[in-house]
Design the sequence.
């Protein structure tokens, strides 16, 4: 369980499946029916063509570290210094996240390093898709 | 189409004081600047027939506070560059005949927080669901998110990003109204307090109180005003995303690449004709993105362009000559102050005046690479 005080996301009808998936340990993305391309954040239509013909699918959870900052100031629910990162999923979309099981230093956090999803409960209701260095890259 | 030089800025003023202004609420900072702009033009509130401002302040609040009955309003709110978009929309409105004399105002009690209204993202918004839970805390943690990727792709060093702040402080040293004026070195920047790696405090904008106002009218009417007209040659605008994590390319802003070239093409000018430039610098990386995305430098060359002194006093492209958001002032929505400096340069009244400057490009960013607006000004009508 994460430290208390962290802001809690509130799902909407369009994003509920994503958060339900996280709770079940599945990283659910959506795919455009016209182009086959994956997208994020969730919405019931394709941002590429506007088609409502989209499907939800389970992503591999594999990603690379695309960019980040390491915040050094106190924030409720967080212990500085902590990285606020963006990972690029194997399927293409990027998402903001935190990196766990890794020192929060520029030396430890190398861009393009391999990451894997690490579902971490925020509380009883919400689980966040955090990421950790992939086992193979350790 | 609107012609280059068809619309002019006749009034331009900042609030009487900027920096720490604990004696004024947010709406009074708007009004103080508006009254200063009206005073220099000889206009009264009853002469204004169009009003634009950006949320949380709504046009009806400003119109009523100042005693204006507008025929045209614009509350476009896309962050700190909203004023560049207001200029663009106001020029189009005057061209279309919707209004004759338009007032654009800004006021923000960013430091003193008097009647300031913070609006944190709602937990069910997309930002609230997909960014906020990971601990970003204001612009210093979000705006620099793409920087490490930019540095890696472009071969830019920490020293390069420190140099941006050093050069702007050099400009600020020539400006009595700048908040920070003492010279700084690259080492000073790299040894200043870490905020959010890779950025330290001297690479982050100030947080101040202040306001600004612009009055636009047709170039034909501009000749009747006591102020020197500053003509609008071209404008551009765009938006990309409200979530920096979803920015398509971390090394280049889509909104910049649309707004900037649109304005320059509309102006019908060559980039080599530009004498003066403002690029909204909420953080030290923005001038690099701006120079590259607007086509003044090739991708990867902006850091060297600044390092080699091209944007310094005496350089071939003086940039952020008021000291910028890093050293002059930054209320939270700095775009109005970038516009004010472009106007001063075109009027020939800037504290650090660029001798003989005839064309100024003023480029703004809104949110965290969310939005962009660009205005090309000249003191000569084409």
Sequence:
């Amino acid at each position: 369980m994460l430290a208390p005080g962290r802001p809690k996301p509130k799902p909407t009808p369009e994003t509920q499946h994503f958060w339900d998936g996280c709770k079940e340990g599945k990283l659910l993305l959506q795919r455009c029916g016209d182009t086959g391309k994956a997208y994020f954040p969730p919405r019931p239509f394709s941002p590429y063509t506007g088609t409502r013909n989209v499907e939800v699918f389970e992503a591999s959870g594999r990603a690379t570290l695309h960019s980040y900052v390491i915040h050094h100031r106190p924030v409720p629910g967080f212990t500085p210094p902590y990285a606020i990162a963006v990972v690029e999923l194997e399927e293409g979309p990027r998402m903001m996240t935190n990196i766990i099981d890794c020192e929060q230093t520029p030396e430890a956090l190398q861009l393009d390093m391999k990451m894997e999803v690490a579902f971490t409960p925020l509380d009883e209701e919400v689980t966040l898709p955090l990421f950790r260095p992939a086992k193979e890259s350790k | 189409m609107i012609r280059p030089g068809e619309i002019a800025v006749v009034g331009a003023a900042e609030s009487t004081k900027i920096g720490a202004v604990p004696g004024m609420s947010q709406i009074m900072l708007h009004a103080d600047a508006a009254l200063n702009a009206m005073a220099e033009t000889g206009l009264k509130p009853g002469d204004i027939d169009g009003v634009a401002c950006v949320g949380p302040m709504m046009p009806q609040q400003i119109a009523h506070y100042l005693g204006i009955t507008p025929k045209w309003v614009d509350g476009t709110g896309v962050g700190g560059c909203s004023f560049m978009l207001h200029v663009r929309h106001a020029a189009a409105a005057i061209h279309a005949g919707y209004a004759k004399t338009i007032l654009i105002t800004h006021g923000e009690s960013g430091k003193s927080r008097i009647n300031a209204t913070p609006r944190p993202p709602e937990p069910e918004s997309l930002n609230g669901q997909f960014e906020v839970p990971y601990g970003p805390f204001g612009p210093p943690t979000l705006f620099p998110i793409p920087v490490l990727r930019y540095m890696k792709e472009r071969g830019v060093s920490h020293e390069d990003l420190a140099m941006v702040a050093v050069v702007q402080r050099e400009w600020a040293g020539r400006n009595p109204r700048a908040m920070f004026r003492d010279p700084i070195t690259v080492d000073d920047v790299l040894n200043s307090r870490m905020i959010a790696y890779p950025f330290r405090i001297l690479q982050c904008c100030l947080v101040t109180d202040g306001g600004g106002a612009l009055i636009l009218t047709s170039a034909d009417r501009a000749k009747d005003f006591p102020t020197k007209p500053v003509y609008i040659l071209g404008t551009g605008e765009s938006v990309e995303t409200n979530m920096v994590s979803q920015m398509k390319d971390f090394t280049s802003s889509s909104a910049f690449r649309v707004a900037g070239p649109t304005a320059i093409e509309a102006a019908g000018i060559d980039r080599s004709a530009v004498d003066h430039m403002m690029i909204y610098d909420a953080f030290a990386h923005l001038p690099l993105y701006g120079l590259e995305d607007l086509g003044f430098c090739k991708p990867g060359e902006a850091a060297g362009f600044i390092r080699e002194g091209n944007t310094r006093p005496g350089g071939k492209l003086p940039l952020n000559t008021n000291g910028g958001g890093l050293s002059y002032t930054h209320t939270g929505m700095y775009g109005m102050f970038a516009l004010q400096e472009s106007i001063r340069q075109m009027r020939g009244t800037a504290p650090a005046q660029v001798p003989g400057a005839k064309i100024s490009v003023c480029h703004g960013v809104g949110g965290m690479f969310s939005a962009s607006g660009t205005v090309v000004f000249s003191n000569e009508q084409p």
Notes: The interface with chain B takes residues 6-12, 15, 19, 40-41, 66-73, 75, 77-78, 81-82, 84-86, 94-98, 106, 111, 122, 128 of chain A (CB under 8 Å). Residues 16-137 of chain A form a domain with the OB fold (Dihydrolipoamide Acetyltransferase, E2P) fold (CATH 2.40.50.840).
